[in-house]
């Protein structure tokens, strides 16, 4: 009770601080800026916050906080536009949204999907803030109860969602997840610094592949290419059904799902070191498991949008706990946020353990500014969603060049190397074939996302556990099998069993027809070949660096065994069996007027031209040629569209102080921005 | 040349040069320009905080008040960004680059990825920090000013990697005869502290600002016991008590009190050389190769004006700690301190890394 005696006045003071017109004005300004940055995939809160940093020095703390929080809060809301409308996962927070959101857009229900997503986001944000108001006072011991074994088990729980998303052939799903995990280990190992499938001669690979690139490559590129081949609008028949009000009604009809997923979001968000990477998959898995009719998932089930979206804004609130209580940022944007807070005012707000004692009013202001920013952002987004949804009725050939432009730019921002574009193309190819042969793309992505946490937590927990066991058997057991771990194991086992039973009815790629043996068999052999090479490569790491080789060896062997069983099955079964699923046999892709390779060549040409003359010059040529030749537009329309695209790109990059990929030309001659 | 001689000369230089102000140049004007301050780390690290702290102050003092933006080029433990900077030449004085101990150490150890050469660049500002090591309450009770009571205990330490700044604490603990098992693969010292707070790690160290922010509360609550600082250097290059923590003994004092730990000889010289390269001069700001003298003078004057601000001591102590900021020739001397270790120290550390952690850098 003593706690509440100090908390209530602080909460009152916080509201008094927030509800000043000038504070609200700054909040709205931040929200608008956040929305503008957030619709660009791959930029997100980090770019926006860096932009604000120079203005924070000496600023009135509450005004600076309002501005920054307004900006951070709406990024997971606004990136929903890209994931629902274009199938582009804007950030790790919106990956699961793509699974059902984009199919809804294809059915012409974009506005409905968007408003359901926004309503869920808003609600999640508010649930998160209410929960935090009480919880932040008692959170410290709970956060400290999550040690390495507990974090490992949460990661495993996230990984177990592969079972739900594995598709018709669980073995294919497992092999896809294994491939994702193995691709996630590329680069310098965290523990001992050994190189896996990389070399110091190719410095790009030593850092490993970035999530943005893999997300874009696996989800965005296959969809863009497929739609472009079909030469139609995203919404089939270019008609829009289902207005924004329907989406809000959908959310209200599923309000309890929204409540549960919000709580999942806050709780997982609170645990430092996991961040947002697993939250939306756990929420999606939970949604699938609690839905009676599972056949619609992956084809545009609105619950598949509501679940992950409820969790991802709530997660932002949860992420404040480690940030404010321990001074340990839960994400990149939170890290800049901590730095910026120290710049505010006279610099006496110090994020960290002293925050609750000395600045409880500021703490509460942060929590509720976040909630308020969610409300403002959501209202703006819902208002805009009807209009923006019309994008899905435009002939896709007019959208695609802009999307190629955006995803290339987003990919380049992740590492600022030309190789980012090559990696995007390579992963895009993997994505295209995973989609074609009905291997689960979500399983691949979950594997990739969780590769690093799985390896890190396994190694560290193992190391500490072996110390505890040396002290005594019961000391070790107590460490490894804490009540939290046991609970998580039970949840994981139940969800794997349920998931495997349900997986067959969830066809993320739709009903894929089967064809001849040759193409699926070749793809399987290529994957098995990569896994074998990666295994041999990992085995070459010297034994004293066991921590760097054990995970690739175990996972790689497992995935290779999956491939071997698949191979035997493929040899035994006859042509036409569903194991030989191939989108090029029948359906939209097979009937498309344009071929895969000629369509892909357009994207490749943009990358090749960038290598020679840099991104902006390449883009000018690409846009003009594409609109003239592929879209068959007149000169007037071509030049107007190309100018719009270029203008947008330069405006955003200029405001956010971002560079473009340079080419050989830029190496030889000095050119002014944006050409440099 | 012995280590102490070497560092004495360097430090003397720093102190001597700090006394002279360099006259500001009148011709350079940055009106309407944007200065890019590139940091080879991510937005989340200590170097980001350091640059973000100085950027707005620098903007106020440079002629024409240009916008100073901090850009991030992370990768390969900062060697990617440094290799990139090596390829940059002077254009119009709008490029500034910042390095940290994590950039200095691979350079000193001959990491194969290093393709940069510090002596090509011009340092315009340098600043340092200190560090504090502490134990959990139970083991801390056995500490009596020496490590004699700690030798039978197995400690666990959350580490970022033996070739990084963690080299300094790991080598120090080994010299004290302590049995410290590093758990590698954590991403920052904040994660190490959290591991300590959860009771998984039993020994930890933080740089000065990290200690003041997070660990001092644990000490006050009796949950942690500080055992030593790495110390600071005086004008003669001797290790003295850290001015931020005058009540905590230095590693040198603890080593002297501990049986079997020597404050002279090969191991000590190697430790001291890497300590000097990593802490008293940890972060440096550089202009690229080929920068003309008037631009260098302009930056030097601007950084001097920043340090001369009436409120500098107050605002900087919270953000970057109570440590000297070197400018001009002092920064040049600081660079010498940070980027040269005697060959014997280097080979000792390389042998130690190989035998203790199996790390081979060539």
Runs of chain A in which pLDDT lies below 50 for 5 or more consecutive residues are none
Helix content of chain B: 40-55%
How much of the sequence lies in strands of chain B comes to 15-25%
Largest interface: A-B, 52 and 52 residues
Strand order of the largest sheet of chain B: 2-1-3-12-4-13
- Computed structural class of chain B: alpha/beta
Q: Please name the CATH topology of the largest domain in chain B.
A: D-Maltodextrin-Binding Protein, domain 2
CATH architecture of the largest domain in chain B: 3-Layer(aba) Sandwich
Helicity range of the residues of chain A? over 70%
SSE string of chain B, helices as H and strands as E: HEHEHEHEEHEHEHEHEEEHHEHHEHH
- The overall pLDDT average of chain B reads 85
Number of strands of chain A: 2
- What is the quaternary state of this protein? heterodimer
Shape of chain B: globular
* Number of distinct helices of chain A: 29
- What's the Cα radius of gyration of chain B? 20 Å
- Sheet with the most strands, sense and barrel status of chain A: 2 strands, antiparallel
Overall 3D shape of chain A: globular
Explain the overall architecture.
Chain A is mostly helical. Chain A has one domain. Chain A is 73% helix and 1% strand. Chain A has 29 helices and two strands. Chain A has helices at residues 2-18, 21-38, 44-56, 61-85, 95-106, 110-145, 148-165, 170-184, 203-206, 211-230, 244-253, 255-270, 279-289, 303-326, 332-343, 355-358, 360-389, 396-415, 419-436, 441-471, 473-480, 483-503, 518-539, 546-572, 588-591, 596-613, 615-630, 635-655, 664-668; strands at residues 187-188, 195-196. Chain A has a two-stranded antiparallel ribbon. In chain A, helix 10 (211-230) packs across helix 19 and helix 20 packs antiparallel against helix 21 (473-480). The longest helix of chain A has 36 residues, at 110-145. Chain A is globular, with a radius of gyration of 25 Å. Chain B has 362 residues and is an alpha/beta fold. Chain B folds into two domains: 3-128 and 281-343, Bordetella uptake gene, domain 1 (D-Maltodextrin-Binding Protein, domain 2, 3-Layer(aba) Sandwich), CATH 3.40.190; 131-277, D-Maltodextrin-Binding Protein, domain 2 (3-Layer(aba) Sandwich), CATH 3.40.190.10. Chain B contains 14 helices and 13 strands. Chain B has helices spanning 3-18, 46-61, 79-86, 101-109, 137-140, 167-175, 189-197, 208-220, 251-257, 266-278, 293-308, 312-319, 328-339, 343-357, and strands at residues 34-39, 67-72, 95-99, 122-127, 131-136, 154-159, 179-184, 203-207, 224-229, 232-233, 239-240, 283-287, 325-327. In chain B, the strands form four sheets. In chain B, strands 2-1-3-12-4-13 form a six-stranded mixed sheet, sandwiched between helices. In chain B, strand 6, helix 6 (167-175) and strand 7 form a beta-alpha-beta unit. In chain B, helix 7 (189-197) packs parallel to helix 8 (208-220). The longest helix of chain B has 16 residues, at 3-18. The two termini of chain B are 26 Å apart. Classes of the chains: A mainly alpha (676), B alpha/beta (362). At the A-B interface, helix 3, helix 15 and helix 20 of A face helix 2, strand 2, strand 7, helix 7 and helix 8 of B.
